[in-house]
Design brief:
Blueprint (H helix, E strand, L loop, with lengths): L17 H12 L2 E3 L4 E3 L27 E5 L2 H11 L5 E5 L4 E5 L13 E6 L4 H8 L7 H10 L4 E3 L2 H13 L3 E8 L5 E9 L2 E10 L2 E6 L9 E12 L2 E8 L2 H17 L7 E3 L5
Parallel strand pairs: 3-6, 4-14
Antiparallel strand pairs: 1-2, 4-5, 5-6, 7-11, 8-9, 9-10, 11-12, 12-13
Helix pairs in contact: 4-5
Length: 285
């Protein structure tokens, strides 16, 4: 911290010593360097003003004084490339699963002293659209038609039963909208059998049955840029309300699936960090 001191200096000036007094005053008022820190102090005459001119700005230099800034990349290969170019033995890496990101502090504090910590490298993972879609619609009670359309739109994500079987189920949902569902039973195979009665001219018509799976399996990529698909189990649920059929699904522990996918990416990254450990958490700042 720089403190300002005011010092009164009395000069004995002889009639023929005017120039000597001027020279002494200039010596007193000359800026003095305070060591360390590159700060100066100067004596300002009463009524005067001290102008500050910063001649140490990076924009006036041929090169900056130090590396700084925050670089964000989307895949491991880009992270590894930038890390290899700028990291040193004191660089640190942090993995934050809740924010789906890995952050490196390239100029982290050294063992023998502090550093700026202003040069950052971030691998910001993004969830794929299929992952977001299935998670966003979990637990929503669909009508038959809406659920059929949802299955058709996302058929490519269904791993088991085969997509053709799920498409047939979706088409059956669309074909049985004008029926009254009466009951549902669980079969020994684990499937559900739904019994319905067709409505023809406001009268009860022919009875029918609809068999749906109790569960199905999705093959989803959790993060963009990583081709490995993770299997996610889903439980199909139904409710009969006044003859109307409502359908929903519930994913089996999607948070654990996402954590496993994140850990796999961190492990992949660790192989290229030349022994630098990956810390769990986030850096200061």
């Amino acid at each position: 911290m720089t403190e300002n001191f005011t010092e009164t200096v009395e000069l004995a000036v002889e009639p023929n010593g005017v120039q000597a007094a001027i020279d002494a005053g200039e010596a007193i008022a000359k800026p003095t360097l305070l060591d360390p820190g590159n700060h100066y102090v100067a004596v300002v005459p009463a009524g005067g003003r001290l102008a500050h001119v910063d001649l140490d700005l990076d924009k006036y230099r041929d090169t900056p004084r130090r590396k700084e800034g925050r670089v964000v990349v989307d895949d491991v290969a880009s992270f590894v490339h930038y890390w290899g170019k700028h990291a040193d033995e004191h660089s640190e890496v942090y993995a934050n699963v809740s924010r789906s990101k890995v952050e490196a502090v390239l100029d982290a504090h050294a063992d023998d002293g502090p550093r700026w910590g202003g040069h950052r490298l971030v691998l910001q993972l993004k969830h794929t659209q299929p992952w977001l879609a299935w998670n966003a619609n979990e637990g929503i009670k669909f009508s038959q038609t809406d659920f059929a359309e949802f299955l058709e739109d996302n058929l490519a994500d269904i791993y088991a039963p085969p997509a053709a079987d799920m498409l047939e189920i979706a088409q059956t949902f669309q074909a049985t909208t004008k029926v009254n569902f009466e009951s549902g039973t669980r079969l020994a195979s684990g499937q559900r059998k739904l019994t319905y009665v067709e409505q023809v001219d406001a009268k009860a018509g022919q009875k029918g049955e609809l068999t749906i799976p109790e569960s199905f399996t999705l093959g989803l990529q959790v993060f963009e840029g990583f081709e490995v698909a993770d299997e996610v189990g889903a439980r199909l649920r139904y409710r009969i309300n006044g003859g109307n059929l409502q359908l929903s699904y519930h994913l089996n522990r999607p948070d654990e699936v996402a954590r496993a996918a994140f850990d796999a990416i961190v492990n992949q990254l660790t192989e290229h960090l030349d022994g630098t450990p990956v810390l769990v958490g986030q850096p200061i700042g």
